[in-house]
Amino acid sequence: MLSPKTIEIIKSTVPVLEVHGTAITKRFYQMLFTKHPELLNIFNHANQKQGRQQHALANAVYAAAKHIDQLETILPVVKQIGHKHRSLGILPEHYPIVGENLLAAIKDVLGNAATDEILQAWAEAYGVIADAFISVEAEMYEKAERQQGGWAGFRAFRVAKKEQESDVITSFYLVPQDGNAIAAYEPGQYVSVKMEIPGEKNVHIRQYSLSDSPGKPYYRISVKRVDEEEGRPAGKVSNYLHEQIQADDVLWLSAPAGDFVLDSEETRPIVFLSGGVGQTPLISMLQTVVERQPNRPATFIHAAQNSQVHALKSQVEELADKHRQLSVYWCYSQPTERDVESKAYHKAGHIELPWLKEMLATPNASFYVCGPVDFMRAMNTLLKQCGVADSDIHVEFFGPAASL
């Protein structure tokens, strides 16, 4: 337990963290990787270069300081991050390293403003927060290993089939190399893929949503090839998977993880809103709903540039043909001439409020949203304008969490 004095000091730093938080976390990662380059085998380098990881950590530190006297309020965030840590292989021995470099970064950025009293208070607070993470993650590690078909660390999977779904998305069907059972998972969860790429100094780990419903003898991931764009490097792992990995090759996977999952107890109508490759966890949920809840109304709305990059379209349309409970709608921002001629979509442009209201039978539903951050921000705004409660909007970020 933290003393009232320590809590008071931590709370007094909240305004400073609001201003300097990202500078502190940027300096933290610089110091961390300089002193411990082996940790580059765990962290996503692309997220580092784009600043997403620094921003996410700054938000987490800010939230911890703001709620230091009520840490139970950030427990959902601890669990969300804990899932990612477990899937990456973050261990208790990593926490003292992080704490040491975080305090050093605070001192380095704030200079004389970071007094010994403030640093000592943060050292105590970090110890409490780290213990919370370690405790939560210990339970996750145990569950991942002890569950039927479960395992510790990374396990070898063979690519049973590689299937191109669109110009930019390819699915990989993965079966365990040892021939034993695989762990069950909840619709919406992901696996981490650990990749050693020839010519690369470090191991790369990426997390990919499971894009099929549970209960199959395989895992399926549907991976978007990330091309180089302004401000964003090409995806090393996604490109290697697309270009080099073939059937019968081996990938190393951690057990399924993630807290963005289908609420199977809910019976109200359900609406899925996806943009681009954000549809992958939602398709797993959709398949599960039509398989297990045949009387539950479901709506699937997907936004893409056009049919050339629209993956898994026929699979979803086949579900709609077989299950009357399901309605599907496509929104293409840049439809091709062929799309126009074949009437391959329901709306051109972007999802807008009048059209969305037409597609929704009722705002009293559960909404699951996944896609690029800008897409999710837009959908979050539209759903609130439709009268949807915050508690009914569930979102998933690919990569470090951001703010909507």
TrEMBL record:
Gene3D superfamilies to which the protein is assigned, alphabetical: Globins, Nucleotide-binding domain of ferredoxin-NADP reductase (FNR) module, Translation factors
Entry EC number(s): 1.14.12.17
Binding positions for FAD per the UniProt entry: Y190, R206, Q207, Y208, S209, F397, F398, G399, P400
Protein name from the UniProt record: Flavohemoprotein
Keyword S-adenosyl-L-methionine: no
Positions of the catalytic residues: Y95, E137
Endpoints of the signal sequence: none
The keyword Ribonucleoprotein is assigned to this record: no
Region (Reductase): 149-404
Chain residues that bind NADP(+): G276, V277, G278, Q279, T280, P281
Record-annotated membrane-spanning stretches: none
Cofactor: heme b; FAD
Gene field: hmp
EC supergroup of this enzyme: oxidoreductase
Domain FAD-binding FR-type: 152-263
Tree of life domain: Bacteria
